[in-house]
From TrEMBL:
Signal peptide: none annotated. V-ATPase is a heteromultimeric enzyme made up of two complexes: the ATP-hydrolytic V1 complex and the proton translocation V0 complex. The V1 complex consists of three catalytic AB heterodimers that form a heterohexamer, three peripheral stalks each consisting of EG heterodimers, one central rotor including subunits D and F, and the regulatory subunits C and H. The proton translocation complex V0 consists of the proton transport subunit a, a ring of proteolipid subunits c9c'', rotary subunit d, subunits e and f, and two accessory subunits. Transmembrane segments: none annotated. One of its GO terms (cellular component) is vacuolar proton-transporting V-type ATPase, V1 domain. Belongs to the V-ATPase C subunit family. Subunit of the V1 complex of vacuolar(H+)-ATPase (V-ATPase), a multisubunit enzyme composed of a peripheral complex (V1) that hydrolyzes ATP and a membrane integral complex (V0) that translocates protons. V-ATPase is responsible for acidifying and maintaining the pH of intracellular compartments and in some cell types, is targeted to the plasma membrane, where it is responsible for acidifying the extracellular environment. Subunit C is necessary for the assembly of the catalytic sector of the enzyme and is likely to have a specific function in its catalytic activity. Keywords: Hydrogen ion transport, Ion transport, Transport. GO terms for molecular function: proton-transporting ATPase activity, rotational mechanism. This is V-type proton ATPase subunit C.
Length: 96
């Protein structure tokens, strides 16, 4: 069975230097065959910013869900005599 490991190596001055050092050590000791796996830069500057955005997204998601539930309850109150039409009125319809 083939085994793949995804590792992170301590950075040298350049990415190429890090790659060469990793290859040198693993080849000499016959530990592994290495392949580059390029990762794109984060669109967010830092990990802290990414975590902050994730937290904000969770808050906005919860708020949106609460507002949607309240709207559904208000609509149910308005349609009290026509409860069978509640589901139909809660659906989002695409307008062309």
């Amino acid at each position: 069975m083939t085994e793949f490991w995804l590792i992170s190596a301590p950075g040298e001055q350049t990415c190429q230097e890090t790659w060469e050092k990793l290859n040198e050590v693993t080849s000499r000791e016959q530990l592994a065959t290495n392949y580059k796996f390029n990762l794109p830069d984060l669109k967010v500057g830092t990990l802290d910013q990414l975590v902050s955005l994730s937290d904000e997204l969770q808050r906005v998601d919860q708020f949106t869900e609460q507002v949607t539930r309240k709207l559904a309850n208000y609509l149910a109150d308005v349609l009290e005599d026509q409860r069978d039409k509640l589901g139909e009125n809660l659906q989002v319809k695409l307008i062309n």
